[in-house]
From TrEMBL:
Keywords (A to Z) from UniProt: Cell membrane, Cytoplasm, Endosome, Golgi apparatus, Lipid transport, Lipid-binding, Membrane, Nucleus, Transport
Family under the similarity heading: Belongs to the GLTP family.
PANTHER family: CERAMIDE-1-PHOSPHATE TRANSFER PROTEIN, GLYCOLIPID TRANSFER PROTEIN-RELATED
Matches recorded under InterPro entries: GLTP_sf (IPR036497), Glycolipid_transfer_prot_dom (IPR014830)
Gene3D superfamilies according to UniProt: Glycolipid transfer protein (1.10.3520.10)
Main location per the UniProt record: membrane
Native species: Fundulus heteroclitus (Killifish)
Domain of life: Eukaryota
GO cellular component: cytosol; endosome membrane; Golgi apparatus; nuclear outer membrane; plasma membrane
Gene Ontology BP terms: negative regulation of interleukin-1 beta production
Protein name: Ceramide-1-phosphate transfer protein
Membrane topology of this protein: Peripheral membrane protein
Classification lineage: Eukaryota, Metazoa, Chordata, Craniata, Vertebrata
Subcellular location, record wording: Cell membrane; Cytoplasm, Cytosol; Endosome membrane; Golgi apparatus, trans-Golgi network membrane
Glycolipid transfer protein domain span: 28-177
Length: 215
């Protein structure tokens, strides 16, 4: 039987996870944040093996966060805010150079957080694109404006090559499993501000604690 990770991607599901992420006082629930990423990884997997190296990295990072949530300190990882406080108070983060905590929650989430900015920029381009615009171009522009600043040459090169394999706009909108292109665009109109809010809250939190450059 297909497990939840093998099920088809559905944009609504991702949207619901990012919606459930935000508490009334702007805390970010880790469980829903990770669920949002798991939904996105499903889509990436459905796009073909050329994206395997990206999907593997994103999956391993979500797994690290899930392991923290399932650990004896799980309650400390309930929100991004509580995780930051817990790991900093207990000196569980390598702040200046890689040391004994190469896979801290703060550092792991930072990598996904940077990718969330890429997602926001990409989805906004997709939302405002015209029928014959190229998804590979939208993806590359969004990547160059965000994640690329944090990746070495070889990764940038490999990512750039993978972008050529993206389906065209109509095919891409179809895999969202939402309905007509107009319905997808309407849903993206809801998703982009939400993702942007989650991104901004995390960015401000990390900035406040000087965590934006964790090695
Ligand atoms: C609403 C649906 C529409 C869009 C759906 C997009 C689905 C995207 C799913 C996942 C996005 C990719 C997440 C990538 C996380 C990368 C984290 C990262 O930066 N890792 C690097 C640094 O980690 P450490 O070495 O410091 O531990 C790592 O080196 C990276 C390795 C893999 C390459 C990452 C390339 C990222 C390209 C992002 C564009 C993805 C293209 C998807 C096309 C739809």
């Amino acid at each position: 039987m297909a497990g939840p990770d093998n099920q088809k991607f559905c944009l609504q599901e991702v949207l619901d996870s990012f919606k459930s992420c935000l508490s009334p006082n702007r805390e970010i629930y880790m469980e829903h944040y990770v669920a949002g990423w798991k939904g996105l990884i499903k889509l990436l997997n459905s796009l073909g093996s050329v994206f395997g190296f990206i999907s593997k990295d994103a999956a391993s990072k979500t797994q690290i966060l899930m392991n923290f949530l399932d650990s004896k300190n799980g309650s400390e990882y309930a929100t991004v805010q509580s995780m930051v406080k817990f790991e900093l108070d207990n000196e569980l983060v390598d702040v200046n150079k890689k040391g004994i905590y190469p896979e801290s929650g703060c550092r792991t989430l930072l990598r996904l957080h940077r990718a969330l900015r890429w997602l926001e920029l990409f989805l906004d381009r997709l939302r405002t694109s015209k029928e014959d615009d190229k998804t590979s171009v939208m993806c590359r522009e969004a990547y160059n404006e965000s994640l690329a600043h944090h990746h070495p040459f070889m990764i940038r090169k490999a990512a750039g090559l993978a972008f050529y394999s993206l389906p065209g706009r109509p095919g891409f909108l179809e895999v969202m499993n939402v309905g007509s292109p107009e319905q997808v665009v309407a849903m993206l109109g809801e998703a982009v501000p939400l993702i942007s809010e989650v991104y901004t809250i995390t960015e401000e939190l990390y900035q406040k604690h000087n965590l934006l450059d964790l090695p």
